[in-house]
Backbone:
């Protein structure tokens, strides 16, 4: 059974990005505040790029028995640089459209499908609900990083 807190976060958590960055201009969003660390825009690009990865993982878990996944690393993903080239507005639109796919994919699964497992190299066997919780906590980490970066500008 899916907890209501999970479905609410899955549906709306990503919307916090807009409210966090609403008063920033493009230069501020693109600015690197700490050498070697991501800008706000790069955090958003990472969140946008990871959603299709997550969709693919859930679909593999549904189709295969106990698939094993590598830890995702944006710096090793050629697609990450492609996403970084999009405008922040385009990334936010992509996040919203992909999130609708994720929301419908996960919330419409039967209980037996939610119990299907996939293996993470660090966290071991996770069922689809645990993968979804992991996805949301990962996203929340980046939302907090974006929040912190916006407040270094003030």
Residues:
């Amino acid at each position: 059974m899916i907890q209501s807190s999970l479905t609410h976060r899955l549906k709306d958590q990503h919307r916090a990005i807009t409210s966090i960055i609403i008063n920033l201009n493009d230069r501020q969003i693109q600015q690197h505040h700490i050498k070697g660390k991501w800008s706000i825009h790069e955090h958003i690009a990472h969140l946008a790029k990871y959603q299709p990865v997550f969709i693919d993982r859930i679909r593999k878990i549904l189709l295969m028995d106990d698939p094993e996944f590598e830890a995702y690393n944006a710096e090793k993903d050629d697609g990450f640089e492609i996403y970084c080239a999009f405008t922040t507005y385009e990334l936010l639109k992509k996040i919203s459209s992909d999130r609708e796919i994720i929301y419908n994919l996960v919330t419409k699964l039967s209980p037996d499908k939610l119990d299907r497992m996939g293996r993470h190299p660090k966290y071991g066997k996770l069922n689809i609900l645990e993968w979804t919780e992991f996805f949301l906590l990962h996203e929340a980490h980046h939302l907090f990083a974006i929040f912190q970066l916006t407040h270094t500008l003030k």
Summary: Strands lie at 117-120, 124-127.
